[in-house]
Amino acid sequence: MEVINSCLENNGGCQHMCRHGPGGAVCTCHPGYLLQPDRRTCQDEDECEARTHRCQQECVNTAGGYACACTQGYILSSDTFTCVDVDECERENGGCEHECRNTQGSFVCSCRSGYNLIDFNHCEIVDYQYTDDYLGQSSRGDLDLGTALEDDFTVPEDTSAKTRDTWEDITYAEYSKFHTVHTRCVPGHFGPNCSLTCADCPGQCDTSGCLCTPGRTGPTCSLTCPPGFYGTGCNEVCRCENDGTCDPMTGNCTCPPGVSGDLCEDGCPAGYYGSKCERRCPMMCPNMRCNRVFGFCECDPGRFGPKCNMPCPALTWGPNCRHQCQCQARTTARCHAESGVCECSPGYVGSDCSQECLPGRWGAGCLHECQCASGATCHPATGVCFQDCPPGFTGSDCTIRKLANSLYLIVTI
Questions:
Q1: What is the pTM for the complete model shown?
Q2: Which fold has domain 88-122?
Q3: Kindly report the CA angle at 249 between 221 and 266, in degrees rounded to 5?
Q4: CA angle centred on 383, ends 377 and 384, rounded to 5°
Q5: Structural contact between residues 296 and 284, judged by C-beta atoms closer than 8 angstroms
Q6: DSSP string spanning 278-331?
Q7: Which residues have a Cβ under 8 Å from the Cβ of 359 and sit 6 or more positions away?
Q8: Most buried among 23, 272, 328, 348, using CB within 10 Å?
Q9: For the chain, the helix, strand and coil percentages under 3-state DSSP, each to the nearest 5
């Protein structure tokens, strides 16, 4: 008697795998799927909902499996299950203008004495009031302060002769006199702490600062326009469609695979792909956007994965993280996953972060001047002077005299 393999016709009615048995077709499912009561069809097993996953923080169900993800402030470790806290302070000081303190899953910015914290990470100088007991005799007018003290009744450390402080006498009751400081840059200086001049600009400048070429921005024109903007002053809005990206200088569009047109306008409607846009994108794609040719999800810049839920690995960027950052890894704080722009570590500049600060300058973007005595240079990353002060003196510029556990301020009026 001839034995007919029941799996030969229509796979035995099985959705996945079929095995011929004594009673006919026996259906089984691929790993990650469960056989349904009809003994024919297979349904994805949601390991996240069933809590059979190994993820430490977040679980994302996928077809036939799952993927682990981390909440903001953490990154997935090499075991792909556990999450490790990101020390945001190690990269560009966390964006903090002064001090940065790492916390679990986040970080906190703070300011040095004499400044107030505004907008989470910026520090703004405060108007100080000083009594005659600390400043001696003075009158209405301008003083040029070349000395800074680490003391409760002194001007902030960053104050130098480039900053003109207006002293205003205000007499209160009981014959108490105070002086209020109003700080502004003297002509010819601009930028953070009035530390920049036209000599710091790559091209032309005016009284307000450097005049950047199209596509560039920042105090010294060292930054590229943020994503979505281009032109002079980065004031023009990009018009690229279908996830096209625009050149920061000209605004010309670069289209993703399967899309064409000057503005990347020749693409399938959302939710469809194929040569005639006749096929539907996978349901998991965000906003139903998928590659017009192959149908895989087209993720937003900086994201990748079957559901576009994973951040780009280090030194990759763009839609689906398909581009490699052109940054020097050793001197780069991070590569922006959306734009590919290199964010340099303190002490380095350049489009690929390969140039060290010029002598006499330090910090993020090399925006700060060394405050060292006798023209000594400082560390390009920290600003610490390479030369000790003479005996009996202290301070960043060696102008503070030590007197029996107290500080003496020399003010020339």
A1: 0.34
A2: Laminin (2.10.25)
A3: 150
A4: 75
A5: no
A6: -EEPPTTSGGG-B-TTT--B-PPBTEESTTS-EEPPTTEESBTT-EE--S-GGG
A7: 377
A8: 348
A9: 10, 35, 55
pLDDT band at 247 (very low <50, low <70, confident <90, very high): very high
**Domain parsing of the chain, residue ranges:** 88-122, 196-265
CATH 1.10.10 fits domain 196-265: no
**Residue 289 contacts residue 297 (beta carbons within 8 Å):** yes
pLDDT tens, residue by residue, 74-101: 887 877 788 888 888 887 787 888 888 8
CB 86 within 8 A of CB 73: yes
DSSP reduced 3-state for 313: coil
Q: How many CA atoms lie within 13 A of 357 on its CB side?
A: 24
pLDDT by residue (tens digit) across 100-125?
Answer: 888 888 888 888 877 788 877 888 87
And the tokens for 125? 């100088």
DSSP structure class, residue 186: P
**Alpha helices by DSSP H, 2-156:** 47-50, 132-135
Residue 346 CB neighbour total at 10 angstroms: 21
Neighbours of 388 (CB within 10 A): 11
What pLDDT, in 10s, does the model give residues 32-41?
A: 888 999 999 9
* Residue whose pair of structure tokens reads 């006199």 in the numeric block: 177
Q: How far apart are CA 211 and CA 225, in angstroms?
A: 14
The closest alpha carbon to 268, from 238, 304, 243, 299, belongs to: 243
Residue in the structure block whose two tokens are 């910015």? 109
HEC string of 187-205?
CCCECHHHCECHHHCCCCE
Residues 137-168 pLDDT 10s: 333 333 333 332 222 333 444 443 333 343 33
Q: Which residues pair with 310 in a beta bridge?
A: 304
- Residue 88 gets the label, from left (phi > 0), alpha (psi -120 to 50) or beta, of alpha
CB 210 within 8 A of CB 223: no
Q: Which residue has the tokens 């560390």?
A: 379
